[in-house]
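2024-03-11 09:14:02 INFO receiving multi-entity request
2024-03-11 09:14:02 INFO entity count = four
2024-03-11 09:14:03 INFO echoing inputs for audit
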Amino acid sequence: MDPLSATFSALADPTRRAILARLAEGSATVNELAEPFDISLPAVSRHLKVLESANLIRREVEKQKRRCFLQPQALKTASDWVDLYSRMWTESLDGLEKYLDDLKQAKD
Amino acid sequence: MDPLSATFSALADPTRRAILARLAEGSATVNELAEPFDISLPAVSRHLKVLESANLIRREVEKQKRRCFLQPQALKTASDWVDLYSRMWTESLDGLEKYLDDLKQAKD
DNA sequence: ATGTTATTTAATTAATAGGTTAATTTTATG
DNA sequence: CATAAAATTAACCTATTAATTAAATAACAT
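2024-03-11 09:21:47 INFO inference complete, emitting structure
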């Protein structure tokens, strides 16, 4: 899967976004991350794997625990894409040129 | 599905992102949008339905054709989320406070 | 009325996602 | 050494996604 798709589909799940939100307040272990959710630990573990392979988090082994940290670079990839298109779309829709072009296309 | 999840999962598919990229250059009908892809028309039609229910595009009936247009507001929702977290994460990782907090958490 | 163009809906299939419980690995501790 | 804690892996189930082909609908052209 391409990195951008991986990032967006990682972000598409509310549980994973909540995990990221929690991690924005500081690092946490898997059990700490799982605590607020009423899903099983293996389910959380899989969510973390998704976030990790999208490079949105990083894990450090620490005794038997695995501490999770945010990895902000990956979000930047998505952020760049969204910003680029945000800008393109706004221009594309504000521009008189495009407006006229659309009218012309719509006419034939 | 919540709007943010809908937007991110719509953006998670490369075909759909390509369709959006095409639409950034101007409106297009379903057949025009389908042309560059070697997937069937029904497949494209379903992708458009996904984009439409995420409010990323809008469709106008025009004789037998359906003209698709970008709908930039929805991207803004995603853009806002990404920007918020981008900012939070950067702060969270740059801040000495958080760094020390992480160290302390990591120690016990 | 018939055929053509543009698109959607229906029915089906294969793959993936997200969840579960049970078993396993690794490290720590009585 | 036996047990507990932390997390992952395995095996499994179900729902959703993305694709297909075939049929249906709608508007227009002849």
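2024-03-11 09:21:48 INFO post-check: Residues 29-31, 41-42, 45-46, 49, 63-66 of chain B lie near DNA strand C (CB under 10 Å from a C1').
2024-03-11 09:21:48 INFO post-check: Chain B has one domain: 3-107.
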